[in-house]
């Protein structure tokens, strides 16, 4: 069974190889479209197998039976399948039929075109679910497009390779663990990164989706969700991820999308994630031009949803092409229409109109909506007066591929208590850079969601803005008006610069040191004058005392003990996981518990601990847990899989097996733990080889020095282009050289070094190959105890030390500030004057030594 990470890597590598020069935003329609058709074919075959009672037969046997039954029962058979699925794919148009044609050399692009067209016709004729209509229209998948190949033969070849990319994937099996849906989402994200600005049409960055979804999912009893600018549908799906299984089953998905290709992408995405056709209502239309969805019985109320999420296009110009009036029920609450030059509030008001009384709405918009004046200022004032704005979250710039501007997430509710403050969160400074983009880490998202859930205030991060504050700011909601950025720089003290000493107030501000090791800090300082102190010992010695203090040691031991209990618990749960669907649930529980564990200890950043666990899941646990769930821990531990490597370039590029790797157990760890002596031997020989190479390089450099012995003896045997000696020339000169002289000695030395290098290289290569083969064989004979040791090291080997550093970090950070203060005020006015006087004296002495010759 293929895991999420494997399928993601394979499909994206395939996409990059096959698309050539075609624009990523265009190629995605072909790749994702054919991937979805494979899903429809697999579902048709699986439904036929189940309804006809075929259990253990191979796919080939099931397809043959499907052909035979269709010839015998025709419409009766397809109606049976259609009643179950809401669609069907005829035997002659199955994806597997294309694959068969490829293997027999009878494939033509027309086979794909005919199949897609037939599917479109059957949906149109039977009147089955609208969710499948137009998915493969020629406007979306034009297989005559010259970008796929300048002639029919090239297009035939390229489409054939794309078809084969999905040939061995069982889409039904992959969907059960949501592996298929995750892979599809991953491909959408990768295409978005490649598409740059065009990605804004269909993609919301995962970290922004996560912030919005986790907040919205806290709403009680979500039965319906709506995204008026649905894009790829990722926001809808991310919200559903945080709902209970019962909530997911009854959840009704609604969305509207203007771009037809993206509208198709949405429907495919939802269906691949297992959303039933009857639970999704997606419209292809302009959200602002005409209200949708509309309740004919109550046109002025709008269809109400428990959750509304949106990432609309920013500041759309000329949005009111339909000449809408303030009488439009969507805009009545605002009292004025948003300006025609910026459609931000038009989208917000549309979403708000469809928000249920107990629901939650999350919308991401440019920061301008918080402070721009004119009609936008009037709308903002009216929304605040109605008490609809609940939370404002400032995010970093460069989160999106299609714009570099910073964005804000607005949370709106209609049932807020009277007089409730507006929560302001400034998360604009917490991110990491990945290439040109800024990215919120898992811990940043967790902190935002926690601040929202608890309505907590934190200096420099979050603030509850009262109505009076907002009125005082003239309804301007710009976050810096309410949250002052904390400047990490300690302010300068003029007296300290003039007369020396560290201001005592700066010492008082070192809260962690003062609360953790007050006695040590007090003993390390002496007063130099009133209000100023200085260190009595080097910072290195003080740091050692602080970190070895009993209070710090006891705290570290307590954290370590709690961490051991935590790891023992999740070690057993990870080893015994037997359901792929439970992997995400286990991850979430592990993340929540590490945060709660660290919260019990003062001066430890629980979000840094959260990030440590999140990264272990991302790098190791997710894939391993999926594999374990599909087999079992010890079976997976003794399983090896082919190590496939890419060789050659261009037309000769190919995949070849290069040995074996453990399914979950790391080959490197097997070498390190079970073949340690062999590893040491190889390392020693490699070190010797490096020494020989270094000695040879020294002789190469020496041979380039004019008039040196090395140049005289070795210049003729030196290949300047490669900076290396030629062994054949050396042997020829040695035959002519006189034994014992300098030339002979140097030539012989190089010959011996080159021979030694060759022999060592052969030995190292041979030993590495033997170790590789021994390691690969050892995988299948690992004992349970060995698997336990290897996997614990793989998952948690560095975890304890990383968490222990979280205990020390606040202390060492403040010690670094103390060192900075000591250095800052060590040069006083007096010392500077003394240095100046010294320099003047030295200059005068130099002047006196100058001798002036008179002619």
UniProtKB/TrEMBL annotation:
EC number: 2.1.1.72
GO function term, MF aspect, one: DNA binding
Gene3D superfamilies per record: 1.20.1260.30, Vaccinia Virus protein VP39 (3.40.50.150)
Residue span(s) of domain DNA methylase adenine-specific: 176-487
Pfam families hit by this protein: HsdM_N, N6_Mtase
Keyword entries, A-Z: Coiled coil, Methyltransferase, Restriction system, S-adenosyl-L-methionine, Transferase
GO BP field: DNA restriction-modification system; methylation
Coiled-coil regions listed in the entry: 750-785, 815-849
Annotated family: Belongs to the N(4)/N(6)-methyltransferase family.
Descriptive protein name: site-specific DNA-methyltransferase (adenine-specific)
Source organism: Carnobacterium iners
């Amino acid at each position: 069974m293929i895991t999420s990470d494997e399928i993601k890597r394979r499909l994206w590598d395939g996409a990059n190889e096959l698309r050539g020069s075609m624009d990523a935003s265009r190629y995605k329609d072909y790749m994702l479209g054919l991937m979805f058709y494979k899903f429809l074919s697999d579902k048709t075959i699986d439904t036929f197998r189940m309804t006809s009672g075929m259990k253990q037969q191979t796919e080939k046997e099931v397809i043959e039976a499907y052909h035979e039954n269709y010839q015998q029962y025709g419409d009766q058979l397809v109606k049976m399948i259609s009643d179950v699925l809401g669609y069907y794919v005829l035997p002659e148009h199955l994806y597997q039929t294309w694959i068969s044609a490829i293997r027999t050399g009878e494939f033509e692009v027309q086979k794909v075109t005919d199949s897609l067209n037939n599917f479109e016709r059957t949906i149109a004729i039977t009147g089955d679910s609208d969710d499948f209509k137009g998915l493969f229209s020629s406007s979306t998948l034009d297989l005559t497009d010259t970008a796929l190949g300048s002639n029919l033969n090239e297009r035939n070849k390229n489409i054939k390779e794309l078809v084969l990319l999905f040939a061995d994937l069982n889409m039904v099996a992959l969907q059960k663990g949501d592996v298929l849906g995750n892979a599809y989402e991953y491909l959408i994200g990768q295409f978005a990164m490649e598409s740059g600005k065009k990605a804004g049409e269909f993609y919301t960055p995962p970290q922004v989706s996560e912030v919005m979804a986790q907040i919205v999912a806290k709403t009680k009893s979500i039965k319906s969700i709506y995204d008026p600018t649905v894009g790829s549908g990722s926001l809808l799906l991310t919200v559903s991820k945080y709902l209970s299984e019962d909530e997911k089953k009854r959840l009704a998905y609604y969305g509207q999308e203007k771009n037809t290709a993206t509208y198709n992408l949405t429907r495919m995405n939802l269906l691949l994630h297992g959303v039933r056709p009857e639970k999704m209502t997606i419209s292809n239309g302009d959200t602002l031009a005409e209200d949708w969805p509309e309740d004919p019985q109550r046109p002025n109320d709008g269809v109400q949803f428990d959750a509304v999420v949106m990432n609309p296009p920013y500041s759309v110009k000329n949005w009111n092409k339909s000449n809408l009036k303030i009488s439009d029920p969507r805009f009545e609450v605002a009292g004025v229409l948003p300006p025609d030059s910026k459609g931000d509030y038009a989208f917000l008001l549309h979403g708000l109109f469809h928000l249920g009384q107990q629901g939650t709405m999350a919308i991401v918009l440019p920061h301008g909506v918080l402070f721009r004046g004119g009609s936008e200022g009037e709308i903002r004032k009216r929304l605040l007066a109605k008490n609809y704005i609940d939370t404002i979250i400032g995010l970093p710039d460069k989160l999106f591929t299609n714009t570099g501007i910073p964005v804000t997430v607005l949370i709106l509710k209609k049932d807020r208590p009277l007089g409730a403050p507006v929560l302001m969160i400034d998360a604009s400074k917490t991110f990491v850079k990945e290439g040109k983009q800024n990215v919120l880490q898992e811990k940043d998202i967790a902190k935002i969601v926690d601040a929202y859930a608890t309505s907590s205030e934190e200096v420099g991060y979050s603030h509850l803005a009262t109505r009076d504050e907002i009125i005082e700011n003239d309804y301007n909601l710009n976050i810096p008006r309410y949250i002052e950025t904390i400047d990490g720089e300690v302010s300068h003290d003029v007296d300290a610069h003039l007369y020396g000493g560290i201001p005592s107030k700066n010492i008082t501000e070192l809260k962690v040191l003062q609360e953790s090791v007050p006695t040590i800090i007090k003993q390390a300082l002496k007063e130099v004058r009133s209000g100023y102190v200085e260190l009595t010992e080097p910072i290195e010695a003080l740091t050692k005392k602080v970190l070895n203090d009993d209070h710090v040691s006891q705290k570290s031991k307590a954290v370590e003990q709690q961490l051991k209990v935590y790891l023992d618990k999740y070690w057993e749960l990870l080893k015994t996981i037997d359901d792929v669907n439970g992997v995400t649930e286990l991850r979430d529980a592990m993340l929540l518990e590490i945060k709660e564990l660290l919260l019990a200890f003062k001066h430890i950043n629980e979000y840094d601990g959260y990030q440590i666990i999140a990264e272990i899941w991302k790098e190791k646990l997710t894939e391993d847990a999926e594999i374990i769930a599909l087999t079992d821990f010890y079976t997976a531990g003794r399983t090896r899989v082919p190590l496939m490597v890419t060789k050659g370039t261009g037309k000769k590029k190919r995949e070849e097996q290069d040995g074996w790797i453990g399914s979950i157990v790391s080959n490197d760890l097997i070498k390190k733990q079970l073949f340690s002596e062999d590893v040491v031997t190889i390392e020693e020989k490699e070190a010797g080889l490096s020494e020989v190479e270094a000695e040879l390089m020294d002789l190469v450099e020496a041979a380039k020095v004019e008039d040196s012995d090395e140049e005289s003896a070795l210049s003729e045997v030196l290949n300047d282009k490669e900076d290396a000696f030629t062994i054949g020339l050396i042997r020829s000169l040695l035959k002519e050289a006189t034994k014992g002289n300098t030339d002979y000695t140097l030539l012989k030395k190089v010959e011996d070094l080159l021979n030694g290098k060759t022999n060592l290289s052969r030995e190292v290569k041979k030993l590495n190959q033997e170790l590789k083969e021994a390691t690969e064989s050892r995988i299948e004979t690992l004992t349970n105890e060995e698997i336990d040791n290897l996997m614990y090291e793989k998952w948690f080997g560095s975890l304890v030390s990383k968490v222990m550093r979280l205990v020390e970090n606040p202390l060492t950070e403040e010690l670094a500030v103390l060192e900075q203060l000591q250095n800052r005020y060590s040069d006083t006015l007096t010392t500077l004057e003394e240095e100046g006087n010294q320099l003047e004296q030295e200059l005068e002495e130099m002047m006196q030594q100058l001798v002036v010759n008179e002619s």
